[in-house]
Amino acid sequence: MKGRMISPGKAEGEAIVSREPIGFYGGIDAKTGMVIEQGHELEGQTITGKILIFPCGKGSTVGSYVIYGLAKNGVGPAAIINKETETIVATGAILAGIPCVDGIDIEGINTGDKLVVDADSGTIEKVG
User: Fold this and answer.
1) What SS3 state is found at 72?
2) What DSSP letter does each residue of 81-127 carry, written as one string?
3) What backbone torsions phi and psi does residue 83 show, to the nearest 5 degrees?
4) How confident is the model over 53-63, as pLDDT tens digits?
5) DSSP letter assigned to residue 24
6) Element spanning 53, H or E
7) Up-side HSE of residue 81: CA atoms within 13 Å toward CB?
8) Is 60 a catalytic residue?
């Protein structure tokens, strides 16, 4: 799959997929990497070390700092893949040094898929 680089870098890992937008401020605990938004399809799951896939972000600009905090606390995702990365997620991924790619048809990716993300070239590859 080919998309657009938002934040450079490379990562490999297991996908965790949300079909719903994610709001980082109030939605993800920056100290644990746990999804805490009540009623969200990923509620109670951790994003730590995973390839986090969701259509787009939502909510407050403070979300950028939550993404940064996740990385600084060692509980952030290994990479982020979006259908469309909006400014909040883009800023957070860049500040945090998390590889991020958008323009990807996320419908073909499922939780548990093993992925290699090369944000430098904008490519996502399923492995295994």
Assistant:
1) helix
2) EESS--HHHHHHHHHHT--EEES--GGG--TT-EEEEETTTTEEEEE
3) -70, -50
4) 999 999 888 99
5) S
6) strand 51-54
7) 35
8) yes
| 98 phi-psi bin (left φ>0, alpha ψ -120 to 50, beta other) | beta
Pairing of strands 51-54, 10-17: parallel
Tokens 């938002």 label which residue? 6
Structural domains in the chain, sorted by start: 4-127 (3.50.30.10)
Scan for tokens 């969701």, then name that residue. 54
User: Measured between alpha carbons, how far apart are the two ends of the chain, in Å?
Assistant: 16
pLDDT of residue 59: 87
pTM score, two decimals? 0.97
Q: Within 10 A of 60 (CB to CB), how many other CB atoms are there?
A: 15
CA 121 → CA 47, 99, 113, 127, distances in Å?
24, 11, 20, 17
The helix/strand/coil state of 8 is coil
Of 7, 18, 60, 121, which is the active-site residue? Answer: 60
Spatial distance between the Cα atoms of 86 and 12, rounded to a whole number of angstroms: 23
